[in-house]
Design a protein that fits this description.
Elements: E1 2-5, H1 13-32, E2 38-46, E3 49-57, H2 63-74, H3 77-80, E4 87-90, E5 94-99
Antiparallel strand pairs: 1-4, 2-3, 3-5, 4-5
């Protein structure tokens, strides 16, 4: 597993970190039940700021193992991305990414 993150930090880390985890946890469930093992989503943080995220698993995993892999990756948030405006955790079988700008085409 490796981490990548935006070097810029948010002003109010506690609620931001909670929203990141909330969005990614929902996308973990969504991706693990999607035949393509992929999910994207967004969460409005304020009238001027939106959080964008994606979760993805490799196709060799079962649905339950995809969920476990993503949940394990999401548990790494405090180690990699605490208060960061964007971040990624990339593992051999799954990954996630979040940013404060759109990261996939609609």
């Amino acid at each position: 597993m490796f981490y990548m993150w935006n070097v810029q930090e948010v002003d109010d880390p506690m609620p931001f970190n909670a929203k990141v985890k909330e969005l990614l946890s929902g996308l973990s469930t969504k991706a693990s039940s999607n035949p393509k093992f992929y999910a994207t989503g967004e969460l409005e943080l304020s009238s001027s700021e939106t959080l964008y995220a994606l979760t993805q698993c490799t196709w060799d995993l079962s649905s339950s193992n995809c969920k476990k892999c993503l949940d394990n990756a999401i548990s790494e948030l405090p180690n990699c991305c605490d208060a960061k405006r964007g971040g990624r955790v990339v593992g051999g079988s799954c990954n996630f990414r979040y940013e404060l700008y759109p990261i996939v085409d609609p």
